[in-house]
Structures are given as structure tokens and as C-alpha cells.
Amino acid sequence: MESNVKLTKLAECAGCGAKVGAGVLAELLGDLEVLEDPDLLVGFDRSDDASVYRISDDLAIVQTVDFFPPITDDPYTFGQIAAANAMSDVYAMGGEPKLALNIMAVPADLPREAVHGILRGGYEKAREAGVIISGGHSIIDREPKYGLSVTGFVRPDRVLTNSGAKPGDVLFLTKPLGTGILTTAAKVGMTAAEDHARALEMMKKLNRDARDIMVKYHVHACTDVTGFGLLGHSTEMAQGSGVEIHIESEKVPVLPGTEALAKMGILPEGMYRNRNFAQNAVEEGGTELALQDMFYDPQTSGGLLIAVDPADADALENELKSKVPEAARIGTVRTYSGGKRIFLHA
Ligand code: CO
Ligand code: CO
Ligand code: CO
């Protein structure tokens, strides 16, 4: 399956770690004008996962785009992960992805079978999700990149944003953390083979089951945990919702092998960017540094962070157990007391 080109050797930084920092992005877009339209239900201003535009009272389209350099050497696996990651933003809004377009950049001398492998991974994942890839655009570039622009559907009254969390809500995270640390360490041969395989497995997994289950319950807010890490995305949710978030550090699911690497200081550059962005809003509460680092670790194709009404928390937890066994209850939402937004409890 693995072609003889080392894809990750061609990438300057891996996966969602390649994202521009949240603070920087907000500054760059701050003074640019966008048309106002009452049917644009979700736009950039709320730092959400995807934009949502109302077509009628029962139909809105969800649009998103995501692409990045190779996070693994196997083209087919890279294609699968990039596609699962791109579709995730539609699931995070409570929507169902339906159409997609390829976005691809490849070096002129990348072997044909490697390019084909990337596309095969993307098409296969899209097919699994019930998504039609109907076209796309490719360019020649020194660094390979792949992803999808995805369009989905959602009922306008069922859109889930990251800004609806309410005091009392229970928080769930549906995939373990650590993909940034494990893939960074894998580039220098420091990730155990089985730990690397598990990380790839989790990144390939669609957030569809988590979405299909969550929409049956009274969920107030949702986002997927990707480039800004658990604490970056939690901070956005807390700020956007006007609440504070309390996380039980020991309850947060983490991929095997991650903690040992974090303790050795094997950390992706994106971790430091995420820490710089969010740390003023975070009260560490005695949580050890290695755990904090894992909570700032940029994720690729991470899980959903779900804030659910406490009355539905047990039922949601039970139903997640069958199809999303990695999901865990990690904390609660509380009334904002005016200080920090995120409280870690060791
Ligand atoms: Co997202
Ligand atoms: Co995204
Ligand atoms: Co959302």
C-alpha cells in the first residue's frame, strides 16, 4: 500500500497543525467587509465550523472547506483522513454532507500511483459518508495538499453552533486527543507502530455516527476539535456562549502513547501557537504540564465536542457507547463568573 515516496517528507507541517492561528486569522479578516444577508444563519463572525445559509423554512445549506499537507506517508490513508476531516465540519453543525469538490496540489514529479492513492482514499471516504464528489481543482505545487470543499444540508431550526452552550450542560468529546503529537513524533520514528496505527484509525473515522446520535438529543452546542486543540475550541465555545467550561482532566480521552511523548517534550509547533492563543483564558488548576500540552495539541479529524442538556446526558452517553465507544463525558458548562473561561480540574 505504501508507495516509495515519503509523503510527509514533502510537507512542511502536518495536518491541521498547518492552520493559521485563530488570533492571527481574526486580525486579518477584521476590517474586511462581507455582504449582510438575514438568510446567512452562520458566518465567519462566530468562528464556527461551517457557514449556513437558509434556502427555505425547512432547508439550509452548510458549506465548508478544509485541506492540508500529508499527515502520513501512505497516500490512500492521507486521502481518507483529509476527506473525513473536511466532512466533519458539516457534522459539527448538525448537518448531513451531500456534495464535495476535490482540492489538490501535487508536485509535478509525484508518482502517478501516489496521486491516485490520495484520490482513492478521498473518494472511498466520501462514498462511505454518502457524499458525491462532483469535481474539483488541482494545481502543481512543491508541497502536496489535499482536501474537500463540502456542501451539506440541515434544517434551519436544527443548526448546531459552538455558541449555544448553557450553564448545566454536560460536555462530551467523541474522539481521543493526541493526533498532532503522535504524527509529529512518527516523522522522526518515535511513535510506536501500534500507537501510530490507532491514531490513523481514529483520524479516518467519520464523525457521522456521533452526529447521527447527537441530533436525537437536546444538544445546545457543538464543534469539532481540530487545529486549535481541545482548549482552543473549548475557549471559543465558552466565549461564544457566554459561559465558562469546567473540564475533568483525567476524564479526557487520550490516544495511547501520547502522554509519554508529551512528557519527553515531543510537541508540534501548533501546540505552542494554541497555548499562546488560549492560555490567558485557562485556569490550569494543578493539571500537570504534559496533560495541558495534550489538551492544546492540534488535532486532525478530531472528535465532536458536544454540550448537551443535563436531562439528556445519560441517554446520549449510553447511545454513544455502541457506535462511538471512544466518546467520553469530560466536563460541564457553568455560569460565567467573570474571570477565566476554562477551568481544568486535576
Ligand atoms: Co471544525
Ligand atoms: Co475546519
Ligand atoms: Co458548529
Quick overview:
The chain is of the alpha+beta class. The protein contains eleven helices and 13 strands.
Largest sheet, in brief, is: 7 strands, mixed
How many whole angstroms does the radius of gyration measure?
A: 19 Å
Mean pLDDT: 94
Number of domains: 2
Q: Strand fraction band? A: 15-25%
What best-fitting shape do the alpha-carbon axes yield? globular
Q: What top-tier CATH class of the largest domain fits best?
A: Alpha Beta
- The succession of helices and strands, N to C, reads HEEEHEHEEEHHHEHEHHEHEHEE
Cα distance spanning the termini? 43 Å
- The class by helix and strand makeup works out as alpha+beta
CATH T-level topology of the largest domain? Phosphoribosyl-aminoimidazole Synthetase, Chain A, domain 2
Q: What ligands can be seen in this structure?
A: cobalt (II) ion
Tell me roughly what share of residues is in helical segments: 25-40%
Q: Poorly predicted ranges (pLDDT <50, ≥5 residues)?
A: none
User: Mind telling me the CATH superfamily name of the largest domain?
Assistant: PurM-like C-terminal domain
Number of distinct beta strands = 13
Biggest sheet: strands side by side, in what order?
A: 8-11-7-12-9-13-10
Number of helices: 11
CATH architecture of the largest domain: Alpha-Beta Complex
